[in-house]
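Researcher: Hi, I'm a grad student and pretty new to this. My advisor asked me to get structures for two proteins we've been looking at. I'm not sure of the right format, so I'll just paste the first sequence and hope you can take it from there.
Model: That works fine. Here's the first sequence with its structure tokens right after it:
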Amino acid sequence: MKTYGNIRHRLLLALALGATAASCGRASDDPTPPQQEGVEVGFRISLDDPAGTRAASQSRAGYDNGTSVDFENYIDLANKNYRILFFDMQEHYLTTFVPEKLVPVDADPFRSKTYEVLGKIERPLPSSFKVVMLANWDAYPGPLIYGQTSIADIRTAETGRYVYTVPFRLSEQRLIPMYGVKTCEHRIFTPGMRTDLGTIHLLRAMAKVEVVCTTEAWTLDEVTLHRYNGTGYCAPKDTYRSPEGDPELYYTDEVHLVGDANDAEVKSLSLEQPQPGRFVAYIPEYRNLAAGSGNRKAADAAELRVRFKERSDKEYTIEFKYYNNPPAENKVDDPFDIRRNSYYKFTITKAEEQKLVVDVAWYESRPLDPGFGLLPE
């Protein structure tokens, strides 16, 4: 049986041998031989919030940004389970980049939110281009054809889907698929000099859902998610340019569902309990909004159901909706979709005015504080 220490030892050894092992990794899918002396490039990979992808958020004490959990930010470096691809500005494939160095920046490689990438580009690139990174996919699209394969082909390929089975517990073997894209404009490549490409922000393909109860007199005993999807896309549905003209690419809020629909089969899963009283699940995207209806709740919307030790005979329902302080163009009680790379934290409290506190976050914290009669007097 593998131990946590052995896994960590193997990863550190793999990082130490990174430059040597790069040529022995998976094939790059690039059929064209090098055309010029290589030029050095470097960039960073980040799992923090891409600026501007959500409305401005507020800080909240005790917020978990993923660095306290092994494998939540983890890229499978030991098995080189990633691809770095270059595309022209029309989003057609140019070449595959095999880095000489890809290492976590933070001290703990299993929790680092930032990675450093260094290496050489062997094929000439235009001064403006796009970089796409895929990580932790079960399989990768291929073969990639120069000038033909598009970023849209990558996002919608069958190999760009993952199968979700329960229980889903993060481990070296069960990781969250990730995707990121960045536009680079007016870059100059000089042999013998390193060109900095900036930061590529990766999106996790799953959402994180957490439920806790902070009232001592009440103890959460069971939390289940009613309705979820059994497959998901590793990449989001689309990207768009910032309206302010910033060259960075931003991500659409629209969920990317296989078949563009929720699963017809009604399924339920039990949330894991990593600590007493704290229930967590990582799940695929799910559409809670009725199609073409604005902000109306779908008939097959997902919901959470909770039971307490003090009232084991009664089940309480929590909806995915805004309880107060909704974002622009929404109102209180509007439902919302379960979206990739979002963190939904439900904090149940029993007080004079019974309420449920919900944090909806893009791996940051934006508190919603609803009045909600969840528990009986």
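Researcher: Oh nice, that was easy. Here's the second one.
Model: And its structure:
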Amino acid sequence: MLTVPARRDRTRFGVLPWAVGAVLLIGLFLLFHNFSSKTAPTSGEKSAQDRPVATSPATERAGDERPRKKAAPATAKRSPQPDEPPAEKPVERLAPPDPDDPAVAAVLAAARDTSATATKTLIASLKSSNEVVVAEAANALVERGATEAISPLSQISLETAAGSGLSVIDALGRLGGVAGESDKDVAVDRLLAMLAEEKARGARESPGNLLQIYEALGQTKDPRAAGPLEAELLDETVPRAAKVIIVAALVAIGQESSRTALETAHAQQSAAQGADALDEEVRVELVGVIAKALEVL
């Protein structure tokens, strides 16, 4: 019969293509596995994406387009922090009090003594040629509210006061703020005279003295000080940082008439632009300070 051989032929020729295909698949699998074992990273090896690429400066400049943060130059100015004041009065560095100096020992002892005799000793010390003695005496007189010291304080020249100048100015402002009308007038008159003197003198210590004078005039709370302070606020030669202190002084005095100068200054500063990044920060701060002052006055 022809049916059986025909069935065998179909079976033989039907299996052969499948067998050949299976052999090819197995061969491809082994080839792929062998290739993968050579190229795949081991457990302790990083892949090409994870490994750092060694680059030279030239290839970094040519191929790395990521923005790099430039290092700040050594001479760059540090911008003020949000919680820092926009301006800081230069502090005149005095030598530490020398307890072995008889004059210094005497003024320090008087500062600890609250008697009327000690107060007279402190007032007499204001005439000393030793700047440390004068500064210590002025500070002690402020602490005890000795308004009788205003007159001798007003007789001190800032040109010869040297390192004690800031303490003298501060004492006039603080004591003038708690003094009676007569003594207050003396303090304010002297501070206004100092303002004119320091603007004209232009000495190394004058900028620091002027900042202290602005603050001291505010401490007196005398309406007569408002006009000169308003003029300083609108003076283009006065630095913006100083004007922040002037605005604070005008608020302390509290004259509603100061609104006109404040509004003018606010318009001027709002339309201006700082000379550099730091000056621009101070300008923005000044605009904000003036705006707050206008809310108060």
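Researcher: Is there anything I should tell my advisor about the second?
Model: You could mention this: The two ends are 125 Å apart (CA to CA).
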